[in-house]
């Protein structure tokens, strides 16, 4: 009970900002910024992976340079993805129960397995098969801890024959083909976790998994674009404009689809005008005005679309194109984060009585606070840095026998 | 007032009321898991089975297929023991007797609330918090009472000051109000509970007697159930950091007592009883009143039935 | 296919897998082999016995402490009070509504005494006037009803008849009386339209007053040819209105309201 003085004050301040009528238990939001960070991160994973898959399956030569980088990015973010979830649980120490007694009817439980499948069967496998020969060669030329690390990572494999290389290539093809629907499943599933909640009219929608998926693809491509643009000059290399143009093109197409889907959802809601339309309209006009209309729509969608479109329409010098792409990709990241915010937080800001709105007071410190979220968003970059040191994705790090010069694949 | 059959029905063996009631074979588990009786690999042992997983086929069309089948079967049989044990346990009609002789499979509980009788005194809210040790500060309600004031122009004001634990204050006088009433709310103990559907670990469940309960020692506090409940009946207990909600005072009804809120309702607006047995106050309630439920379009099949429910209540 | 042949097949297939594949298979087998026994150890033993939950959770839920004893047990010692209460207006008000959770008292009556709200603040929780409360439920305006006096000084809580039988209808039907007081019907006595017996003041719901049933009743004053004072509004009974009874449009206690 010693918490209560503080809690009573906190409640009093929350209650003051309640508009209309909310159920008494709804004063406080349950899924905080951590649950916003989580779909954002898995979205980046799915998007980065799908970009990588474009190289393998559709043989898009221009973005070849980003293939391994995309995979490592996906892995770095995927490793961090469970952390926001664990942090927001009431009992993270019991979280393994999802693997012991999963409720097969629960989207969240099944997601644990989808995640495990994607991580192990798809991403790790693809990276492993792609890097195996290089790991062996690096291990041969190194000494000390690095040598052993690479040997362990290669699972002590030592076969570098042509036959094994062909097997690796075939395996990567198969894994990628399985991987694309798996990536779709990974993030579509997160959308389904929200979309299947019939109690919440803001979330409950058939389109939710699709919208989540396409905004994930958008954010993933934008992320890889940003990382490529930042890392390449850091390594004193020239940015390949053909690669960049292609990435921006894919980003553009993905954004068109994403925007169309979101517009469709919007039109559909207004047209059907179901019971919840009044409170949802109040929600968008009031609590979500800035984050939805300004940030998600204008800054996160319209502005980048216009920028990239104008670059395509008019002949622009490379310098300007780079600047536009960079700013557009940044805006996209902000916009997609805002999309997640609007879905997760927005869905909890209105009461299920459809008669009132509450408010979200994000704490700065504390396990569900802003600082923890920022750390969780930065951690993947640190992990990515470590990964690029352990398993460099750069072309020049590859052993000359790893790929014959005539082939474009690794 | 007191229905002797009710008391008898609450726990003792061989009560006369049961002969009045059509056979209540309350064995939900059998209908839920008939498939489990047909597990692909019925030998629960970890050894390689002699008969190949009940698929005796000496003239196998394909050796490879057989080989794969055996391997997969052996693999799956590692997981199957749990399922088989469970299915066998369930196949033999579930016998479950709690302390005091209460048999969960022989009851099915529901509640009736008459809106016309509720006076909004809030005694139920207070008694519930006392009986179940619900934190009083800053808030958390297993049950609460709402007041609706419907005006002639269609405007509706709803309020529930601190859940109505200290009743209500008089609002400013308004001559335009054409209807005004109180609505007690609580967990509806749905027969198709969306909260049970989304729990990832099986920490919330529907008991054989129709009561939706939470296992506080197993709950991981993910709060998905709180999001999934359309009625706002759940909250996160700040002390245990697990989900909590109305339990129909399970610890009372298994001893033949009424839930605390029903016990203290001064106007008998709340009626508690068996949904399926004829000799129960709830049966008369369901027979004599036009019944409404909350959010019927969501098909949650709630077991809290409202008499004289107004269209504005949601 | 018997066991030996099966093993031979396994070995043959194993030989065909490339070296890296073998490493992967070993890794996967290790992971699975660790996962399964660990899983078996960690799952609670009674999980799944009666459904997808821990069976002992239900047992634990049923074993929690009871705080309210329930009204049946009060009769064992306090049968005189219970009998008095059963005949009065508070027959549906169980003992613990006012006396609080009393299970401890039933176990050890002398050590644990139930509360007994004697102050003025408790009875108004039910009986204070709220416009949303059902018509006919006995309510008082707390501030003006014998202010400062304890409720129980006039009303025995176990048989709460008012100390004097109310003379006027408005003692209980105050809202209606106040509405009527500002209308033209202020001069019409309640008993003009409603036949009421004396028993209504003792057991209101058992002896309900009557209500008029036909248009002609209102026509006694309001018909064109009625024998009534000149300033009473007149209408043609034959054509006025849709054929419904008058009070479907005109609230009889405030007929001027629009």
How many domains would you count in the coordinates of chain B?
Answer: 3
Uncertain stretches of 5 or more adjacent residues of chain B: 7-60
Amount of helix of chain B: 25-40%
Supply the number of helical segments of chain A.
15
Gyration radius of chain B, in Å: 24 Å
Number of domains of chain A: 1
CATH class descriptor name of the largest domain in chain B: Alpha Beta
The major beta sheet of chain A can be summarized as: 2 strands, antiparallel
**Straight-line N-to-C gap of chain A:** 62 Å
Shape of chain B: elongated
Taken in chain order, the helices and strands of chain A follow as HEHHHHHHHHHHHHHEH
Q: What is the strand tally of chain A?
A: 2
Largest interface: B-C, 76 and 55 residues
Average pLDDT for all residues of chain B: 81
Number of strands of chain B: 11
Any descriptors?
heterotrimer; B: 314 residues; alpha+beta; Alpha-Beta Plaits; 4-stranded mixed β-sheet; 3-stranded antiparallel β-sheet; 11 helices; 16% strand; C: 258 residues; mainly alpha; 12 helices
Secondary structure topology:
The complex is a heterotrimer of chains A (410), B (314) and C (258).
Chain A: H1 4-16, E1 19-21, H2 33-57, H3 67-80, H4 82-88, H5 97-100, H6 107-141, H7 144-153, H8 162-195, H9 208-234, H10 241-272, H11 277-285, H12 289-313, H13 318-344, H14 346-349, E2 355-357, H15 370-390
Helix pairs in contact in A: 2-3, 2-4, 2-8, 2-9, 2-13, 2-15, 3-6, 3-15, 6-7, 6-8, 8-9, 9-10, 9-13, 10-12, 10-13, 12-13
Chain B: H1 4-9, H2 17-20, H3 28-32, H4 63-77, H5 80-91, E1 109-114, H6 123-132, E2 143-151, E3 156-159, E4 177-186, H7 194-198, E5 204-206, E6 212-214, H8 224-228, E7 235-236, E8 243-244, H9 250-253, H10 260-264, E9 270-274, H11 281-288, E10 291-292, E11 304-307
Parallel strand pairs in B: 1-11
Antiparallel strand pairs in B: 1-9, 2-3, 2-4, 5-6, 7-8, 10-11
Chain C: H1 3-16, H2 19-42, H3 55-62, H4 71-74, H5 79-87, H6 95-99, H7 103-107, H8 124-127, H9 174-181, H10 190-193, H11 199-202, H12 215-222
Write up this protein:
The complex is a heterotrimer of chains A (410), B (314) and C (258). Chain A has 15 helices and two strands. Chain A is an all-alpha fold and 410 residues long. Chain A has one domain (13-23, 33-396). The longest helix of chain A has 35 residues, at 107-141. The N and C termini of chain A lie far apart (62 Å). By secondary structure, chain B is of the alpha+beta class. Chain B has three domains: 1-8 and 16-34, no CATH class; 38-79, no CATH class; 93-197 and 247-307, Alpha-Beta Plaits. Chain B has helices at residues 4-9, 17-20, 28-32, 63-77, 80-91, 123-132, 194-198, 224-228, 250-253, 260-264, 281-288; strands spanning 109-114, 143-151, 156-159, 177-186, 204-206, 212-214, 235-236, 243-244, 270-274, 291-292, 304-307. In chain B, the strands form four sheets. A four-stranded mixed sheet of chain B has the order 9-1-11-10, with helices on one face. Helix content of chain C is 38%, strand content 0%. With 258 residues, chain C is mostly helical. The radius of gyration of chain C is 38 Å and the shape is elongated. Classes of the chains: A mainly alpha (410), B alpha+beta (314), C mainly alpha (258). The interface between B and C is large, with 76 and 55 residues.
